[in-house]
Amino acid sequence: MPADASDHPQAEARRAFYRRIDPANLTPLWEVLSALVPQTPRTAAQPALWRYTDVRPELMEAGRLITAHEAERRVLILENPGLRGQSRITQSLYAGLQLILPGEVAPAHRHTQSALRLVLDGEGAYTAVDGERTTMRRGDFIITPAWTFHDHGNEGDQPVIWLDGLDIPIVDFLGAGFQEKGGADVQAVTRAEGDALARYASNMVPMDFHPRPSDPTRVFVYPYAQTQRALDGIAASPIDPHHGWKLRYVNPATGASPMPTIGAFAQKLPAGFETRALRSTDSTIHVCLEGDGMARVGEQEFRFSQNDVFVVPSWHPLHLQAQRDCLLFSYSDRPVQQALGLWREHKD
Ligand code: GTQ
Questions:
Q1: Closest Cα to atom 6, ligand 1: which residue?
Q2: How far is ligand 1, taken at its centre, from the CA of residue 114, in Å?
Q3: Which of 72, 75, 180, 181 to mutate to test the pocket of ligand 1 (most atoms within 8 A of CB)?
Q4: Which of 78, 98, 120, 136 should be mutated for ligand 1, with most atoms under 8 A from CB?
Q5: Of 144, 142, 131, 145, whose CA–CA distance to 187 is shortest?
Q6: Looking only at Cα atoms, what is the longest distance across the chain?
Q7: Within a domain: residue 224?
Q8: Percent helix, strand and coil across the chain, each rounded to 5?
Q9: I want to staple 52 with a disulfide (CB 3.0 to 4.6 A). Which of 162, 249, 275, 307 is the partner?
Q10: Can you give the CATH number for the domain in which 227 is found?
Q11: How is residue 244 annotated by DSSP?
Q12: In this predicted model, what pLDDT tens digit does every residue of 202-223 receive, in sequence order?
């Protein structure tokens, strides 16, 4: 291979050539081709686990050092150890843990990045999305699609913590980031709580609602109680050897993922169950909502329990083993890969 042929008779002449063309912003493809077009998926992202019991005290310390208002969003980013300094948990997606203390407000803004929240800890907070509030309850999956105004507030008496998942690296890659502050910290409420669920998530939609296939869903909260009911409801049927009992969240009006850039999933694994190895091209972030178990990701093993987060990079085989009945939430860039015809999985 030319790249390694430093003893090749032309090696010195080649290096001189590279140096000569360098000022003209030219560089030889053959030195980098195999890295650019790999045999199998390559990512600098590494398998990693964040234990909630380790992160929570640090988040509470952040709560003593800065207010939600000052920070705009008081978040500790979960940075992939292979991608430090890049504010991302996988090559394409961002994750962080956000804290909002009693009485605090994270002021209204909107941006072209799409966001999801998975509520982990505490009660009494709300998220408002384009004029409607939803009370945040543990396990709720809440979305703020691109360019929707959102603010968060805590009207209760406990700290509230949730996981944020955003497509920040995708929007950055495309150079398409815009943001705008709201006119007021707390946006005006224009619809009653539950309006979106009644209007768009009751096997019915408004008379004049004809979404295009790529439109994000108007349902912006997927309550945990519904997720649990759905997973319990399929648990009477045979379990899938690779997934356990697993469902994906959809836009009920189109069947597509709730947002075009991020797919989200929930799965149940009964105590003692072990999945067969599965690999896929979408690097995936997992959150343990119930139970505890073990994730083997390539060579690494992670013991996880409630509220722990672990990441499985592209094409790494994943084995899951439930010690106690588990409910796992996960998200990835799968809809993007599928839209581009790139997504693949391999089942052992
Ligand atoms: O809640 O709007 O973790 O804009 C990062 C950027 C959360 C948010 C983050 C954000 C938000």
A1: 73
A2: 9
A3: 75
A4: 98
A5: 131
A6: 77
A7: yes
A8: 20, 30, 45
A9: 307
A10: 2.60.120.10
A11: B
A12: 999 999 999 998 888 999 999 9
| pLDDT tens-digit series, residues 155-196 | 999 999 999 999 999 999 999 999 999 999 999 999 999 999
Tell me, yes or no, whether 43 lies in a domain: no
Total domains, the chain: 1
Question: Are 161 and 142 contacting, i.e. CB atoms less than 8 angstroms apart?
Answer: no
> 224: which 2 tokens?
């945990």
- As a whole number of angstroms, the distance between CA 298 and CA 312 comes to 9
Number of H helices, E strands in the chain: 8, 22
164 lines ligand 1 (CB under 6 A): yes
- Please give the number of the atom of ligand 1 that sits closest to the Cα of 98: 3
Our answer on whether the CB atom of 116 is closer than 6 Å to any ligand 1 atom is no
Alpha helices in the chain (DSSP H): 11-21, 33-36, 52-65, 68-71, 168-173, 195-200, 224-234, 334-339
Domain range spanning residue 59?
48-347
| pTM score, whole prediction | 0.96
Name 250's Cβ contacts closer than 8 Å, sequence gap at least 6. 217, 256, 257, 258
Tokens of 173: 């890659």
Measured CA distances, 221 to 122, 214, 251, 343 (Å): 17, 18, 11, 27
Measured in residues, the chain has a length of: 348
- Residue at 11 is within a domain: no
Quick check: helix, strand or coil at residue 276? Answer: coil
Instruction: Indicate if the pLDDT at residue 6 is higher than 80.
Output: no
Task: Please tell me if the CB atom of residue 167 comes closer than 6 angstroms to any atom of ligand 1.
Answer: no
Neighbour-count burial of 277, counting CB atoms closer than 10 A to its CB (0-12 exposed, 13-18 middle, 19+ buried): middle
Closest residue by Cα to residue 116 from 148, 170, 164, 168: 164
CA distances from 326 to 141, 244, 270, 305 (A): 17, 10, 6, 9
Joined together, the tokens standing for residue 315 give: 């094409």
Residue 164 CA: nearest ligand 1 atom is 3
